[in-house]
Amino acid sequence: MKRSSILIIYTGGTIGMKTDEATGALVPFDFSGIYEEFPSLKRLKVDIEAISITPAIDSSNVSVENWVVMARMIRDNYAKYDGFVILHGTDTMSYSASALSFMLENLAKPVIFTGSQIPIGILRTDGRENLITAIEIAGAKTEDGAPLVPEVALYFQNHLFRGNRTTKLSAEALNAFASFNYTPLAEVGVNIQYNHSAIAPYAPDFSDEFRISETMTDDIVVVKLFPGIRPATLRAMLLDSGARGVVLETYGAGNAPTSEWFVRSKDVCTTPHHPTTVPNLAGVSDFFIFNSINIITPYFKDSYTCILSVRFFTDLLCYRNNCLFYFVRKNIKILKCKKRKEEIIMAATQKITEDSYYLNFGKGEYLDLKKAQTDLEDNTSWERDIKKMVITPMDTPMEAEIYFNISGHTIPKEILLDTADNCGLMINYDDKEECLRDCAMPSLLSTVSIRGEGLFRPEKSQQAIALTALLTGCREHSTIMRRAGKVAAIVSPKYEHMPITDLLNITDDLDQYLGDPEFISGCVSHSLTVAKFQYPDAAQTVTDTYRTILAAHGRTLAPGQVIIPVVEFRSSDTTGEAAKLLTYLQLSPGHLMPIGEGVRVSHVMPYEFDEFGNRLSGIRKFRQEAQLLYSQLDYDIKELVPAMLETSIEYPANTFVGLCKKAQIPQKWGGQVEEEIRNDWPNGSGCTFLDVYEHLTSITKKALEENSPHGTRLLDLEEAIARIAHNRALWTKYDLPGTVAWVQAVNK
Questions:
Q1: Largest CA distance in the chain
Q2: Position 316 pLDDT exceeds 50
Q3: What was the pLDDT predicted at 584?
Q4: 11, 14, 479, 697: which is the annotated catalytic residue?
């Protein structure tokens, strides 16, 4: 296995101090001579380099600016090293570890904080063991070369903790840190015992490259409640401080005084409630109070992460940054919507009411698909210029029953129960209350500038608090889309709605360029419409082009093989992306090879103008791009296929398994194809990347033959494979000797 490369970043602190022999004073240690000081490091399978922040930071003086410097150092060196060790003073190490867990977005490498209670130059220093073990952990990899701890962590005295779950307990004891509400990531004795189930999985997203966020607000106040706290004290801490966010440390499980003056000041109590502006503190801008216990329970009981949470909440409110979501997604939990397993198949003419609405269409049923889409839009209404929205939980059937009994039957009981079983959230706006669909979540998160499809899920009440706060701060949530009895999307005024039927009509015009289409398959749901067409009239031209490219590389097509271009239309009016046209080459019946990036248009568009200075509508832009699809497909074939043929792969099976894991394809789908590759090209015999890619794309055909996967999972699988073709750095990344095991593949 290739040796790991580790960068040590010395920021300051006790661990970096040694005694000057001439004066007896403590002076900073020169980490460029680390091998001379610690010769045992040579036995680790790592290459070590070190840089320092100058001047060194007294950890008691750590600031947001220092965190930005640390994050930039990691960003600037991210591609050169396999892991990072940050040496830091112990007083504020938990704060810094929490901060970087927010700031390092899409992190897929170890960032290990450590320090010491005794200077490294003292004979019985704890810094020696802490440093050596932190380096070993930062360089640790699985058998297939993936990092064992791809997250921000803190190592101290035989324990590795998640960085944003730590608390410093003692200024004297060597075991100075603890993680009360999250199990250690590793425990160190004779061996290092990793708790793999607690460690963030190594699964970097194709579409999300590593980046840092440098914006954080300093205007945070921590208010610790104590018996006898006076109104004047609280007012001075909140109003006079100019704070934009508050961490409120309450008693016990979130209890707080019930005095009238206090209740008026905070509007936060121990029952689920949304944060609102403080009514009697006029002049405070974008001001929210969060009950830190209620928002974080049961995961956090320390103020380090609470403070950092509110820093980023207020940053989201004021600057629309998306770091908070990365933090809660990677380091807490992913919200997995409780989808029903069965698909409700309904007649296209039936009134659409089911939350699980999902219609499949096969050959010859394109008109039925368009009719279903028209019926769906007939059951859709838009409501604009809404000034205030509040998200509330509806997470259990009991809550649905109670609401139904006290609400005057304004919402049908079956919709309430269905909401409790699925999304679990409701929306209040303009004195109305309605249920949310699962498909409303992506548009809601897009509106508050949070990327992805999840939010932390200790309880629905806490999710509702966070979303309401973000909506209130964004002030761009003025439109909702209601579909079949529920709210299906919450969008900002920038959203330009492009009806899917209009987009489908544009797709119908492709026959001018590709010939008469044959509808292969499609689906219609509350949140997504897909239609896949093949174009036999263009097959001869595409086949001739493909044959010519192969011949130039000493290859031929199989006798009688005809390659047919396929175009997939994909559209949604509940997310930011309005429509895509994705291109495939059908190598054999059912075997579609994605090629090219296709065209796409978004509901939220940057302003674009035509040659006359008129602003382009999304519909018009999509029509213009669709007209160029054939010429783009021709270019993609002539550009991508030769590049794949000219890329040699020495270890095809290893490359195939590595790419499957990258695309999160489980062994149950790819195992059979792997065996075919091993039979055709044993490791070391070599082939081209086109050979590997063709086998990779055959997985969807084999999976469908086994009646799996379905729906959006199949679409996600196809798109994940397509991204591999567009990311040439991946083509040879896994072309390595040895054996690449099917570990950490996602089985769904």
A1: 91
A2: no
A3: 94
A4: 14
